[in-house]
Amino acid sequence: MSRRxxxxxxxxxxxxxxxxxxxxxxxxxxxVGLVIAFPxxxxxxxxxxxPADATTFDALKAAKIELASQETSFGPAVCSINKTGxxxxxxxxxxxxxxxxxxxxxxxxxxxxxxxGAYVPAAxxxxxxxxxxSDENFNPTVKPAxxxxxxxxxxxxxGAGQNSVLLIVAIIAVxxxxxxxVLYLRRAKR
Length: 190
Prior knowledge:
Helix content is 36%, strand content 27%. The chain has four helices and eight strands, in the order αββαββββββαα.
């Protein structure tokens, strides 16, 4: 009986040793989804890993895009993404179009009421951008396609499921170790 308890203790110890570093590695980070709509109908979608206190601007800077921005009295302004928009030294060169900024809220885009440098999205949030004009009430006329975080994570291969994969590998490793210990104990009895 004590051999079984020792085996259970060994399995628990190995599992803690494998899983704890995976959880600690991610304690100070979060993942944020980005959906960026361009005027030619294409879009850039990505899940980025950023520090837990990162703003949407930090998420944009972490994305695999070419970002031009300008610091303003209201915080950073998005001038261009992948060369769509204005250069950083003349960020407001186009008085008719701009990078509209949105938060995905209950499956719908809501226009952001703050700038990209002020908003801190939650882990698993989706932030959207579209090169857009505005209507007579100054609302953006273009919105990006609605995509949930789960859709972005599954399509981007960004590593959003990496922790799950590592946990599965850790569990398999523990099972293999346990099987080897059981085999050893059975042979030792003979």
